[in-house]
Amino acid sequence: MARSWAVTLGHGRIGVRPLRRRDAPVWERLRADSLAWLQPWEATLPREGGRATSSYWQTASVLLRRARRGEGMPFVSTWDGQMVGQVTVNSISWGSARSASIGYWVARSHAGRGVTPTAVALVCDHLFESVNLHRVDIAIRPENEPSLAVVRKLGFTEVGTAPRYLHIGGEWADHQLFQLVREDVDGRVIDRLASNSAR
Ligand SMILES: CC(C)(COP(=O)(O)OP(=O)(O)OC[C@H]1O[C@@H](n2cnc3c(N)ncnc32)[C@H](O)[C@@H]1OP(=O)(O)O)[C@@H](O)C(=O)NCCC(=O)NCCS
After folding, report:
1. Which residues neighbour 123 within 8 Å (Cβ) at sequence distance 6 or greater?
2. Which protein residues touch ligand 1 with a CB less than 6 Å away?
3. Which atom of ligand 1 is the closest one to the Cα of 147?
4. Which one of 80, 99, 152, 190 counts the least CB within 10 Å of its CB?
């Protein structure tokens, strides 16, 4: 399972590759520089005073352990080969579901360049074609316009609203749920992104 996560994918100046232990300094700098930008959308821990998991080591050790177990795939997104954000595949379910959830962020300095939709498209193609998953979902707070733009560009379908779905910014927050199933995609998600963005 670990092998299906050890991939480097690219499209133009944008790419994805697995998160590594040695990403710590860049990860911490990017997140410190973008603190106010990221904080309103950060998942928080309800049983630990509603705080976010802030240190790289806390975050990475959980994500890398899940990756070893086949439960997740933490990728970084890159611009000209340099890390600028993260795309994390969480909650992989095998058996009859063959599904996963995706979460993401990009540094404020690189927002608006299409980094996240392109990185998510590359990851979705990998999940559908190589890992053989059937469904990918993304949960977004209704007020997060930039993130809603990402799923719109990728052609995800809205499934509905889940009340008090996730603990974000210190409270249980409603989310809109979006999904993409393999049959929705005729060809590759990365090609679909190009045609949706051109509209
Ligand atoms: C949501 C997010 C990942 C989008 O990533 P991105 O790589 O900037 O995605 P895009 O380049 O496609 O831009 C998406 C939207 O951001 C907005 N945007 C564009 N340029 C921007 C800039 N310079 N600064 C801020 N927002 C900008 C636009 O609304 C754009 O949509 P449009 O292209 O239809 O106009 C990013 O905004 C982010 O990290 N936000 C904070 C964390 C977060 O919300 N994570 C997701 C939780 S569900």
Report:
1. 9, 16, 73, 75, 87, 89, 102
2. 37-38, 41, 104-106, 111-117, 140, 144-147, 149-150
3. 1
4. 80
